[in-house]
Task: structure prediction
Amino acid sequence: MQLLLRHRLLLQLRIRLLLRATLLLRLRLLLRMQALLLRTQALQLRLLLRLRAQASKL
Result:
């Protein structure tokens, strides 16, 4: 009985750790995607500013 209880507790712990690991992975993925989005937005802004500067020269 005691062994079964310990086994079940270990299983629950392992499941909890797995869930936490997947959550962390998802968070890292989301952060990476956000960084990419920010980078592309910065690039677009830079392009826009360059185009505006060129247009004002005309």
User: Anything to note?
Assistant: The helical segments are 2-57. The radius of gyration is 25 Å. The longest helix spans residues 2-57.
